[in-house]
Amino acid sequence: MIFPVVLCGGSGTRLWPSSRKAYPKQFISLLGDESLYQTTLRRLSGERFDRPLVMTNEAFRFLASQQAAGVGLADARVVVEPCLRDTGPAVLAAALMIARDAGADALVLVAPSDHVIPDVAGFRAAVDRGVAAAERGALVTFGVTPDRPETGYGYLELSAPPDPARPAIPLRSFREKPDTETAERMLAAGNFLWNAGIFLFRAGDAIAAFEAHAPFLMEPVREAVGKGVKDLNLFRLDEAAYSAARSISFDYAVMEKAETVHAVPFDCGWSDLGSWDALWKEENPDDDGVATHGSVTAVDCHDSYLRSEEDGMHLTALGVKDIVAVAMRDAVLVADRSRVQDIKGLVAGLRAAQVRQADDYPRFHRPWGWYETLCIDNRFQVKRIMVHPGGVLSLQSHMHRSEHWVVVSGTAEVTVGDEVRLVTENESVYIPLGARHRMANPGKLPMYLIEVQTGAYLGEDDIVRYEDAYGRG
Asked: Which fold has domain 363-467?
């Protein structure tokens, strides 16, 4: 049995504006109908795998649970990291939990939540090739056989060229992202792989490696696990202890220092989708080098990626070359394809200028569903709200606004003061300023409503919560 650990706390911005801090790329349906996180969970499920252990942060705890349930893995163990500490403490916490529950010899497979691996059977075969080395005590990493001199990935230097007779090869070194000339030499040498950031080991061996090479992490992370508490269907690591852990990656903390590291080569169409150029490749460009997604028309265009994220927004391009254009309701990106690696810096500049689109997503996800603003002006705001089946908003009141709810699909159970009643399609209810109220969806289908707010202040912090099914303050 293999115990999967999915690292799901990242908030990358290299695919901005589609991926933002409030709703990062692992949760987005970038390719197909499922999110990258959901396809990762599917890849790591089946008779050979135990239920996944998902390491995420406070902001994504409910998203991680909901999307896991969406692919039939409602029993996924979601672990909440109270603060960001990179992958080193996260991997150690997972190894300690699995060793405690399943024993030190339990095999642990650690994988990022936001990678693309189309050949699932090939990936699982690669995992099988690493099992023997892991059971002998090695820390196993997985590397992608390179087909070009890529400068956007780190590299693994093998002690010998890949050999089918040796499924796991001792690793000589880790290499940082190279320049073009160095990448070309690595490709020609034949004993370098792209670092995929996927690891296989026995839980006890990983813990021993941390004790040897990163002992400074042991006390705070062990305490964070020991003092962690179950919270609803989540496990929450102790905040004070985990905050004391140093922020460091698993590679830096352990893998680059350990002596018993082996690498398994694989070639399964892997991509970390680290840039719009990588997504352009995944979208299968046509003979003119143009790839499109969504509602797009391209005329006389070449070597470009054109993407519309909105059903009601049609993106058109005429005579463009070597660009990336991504259109969303609240933000549009137009970039030279050769500059897409600089988008992270662009977003940092937007954040410094306090541009809300730098981090905020047009649709705000909550444990009960989501809402989006359709229109806002002085003293009024119109929202569309979706509540999951069984979802329930907190019992709350507002100091500065009143609300009018119109149900447009499904049935809402509405509480206003001491009155509780059902509101069905095309019916409405008024919430006076200061009244205690809540809504819930008692049905089996999503419920949608339109909310009209009026008042002197419409900010989301104008909420006084009295009861909350999700433990929010």
From this structure: Jelly Rolls (2.60.120)
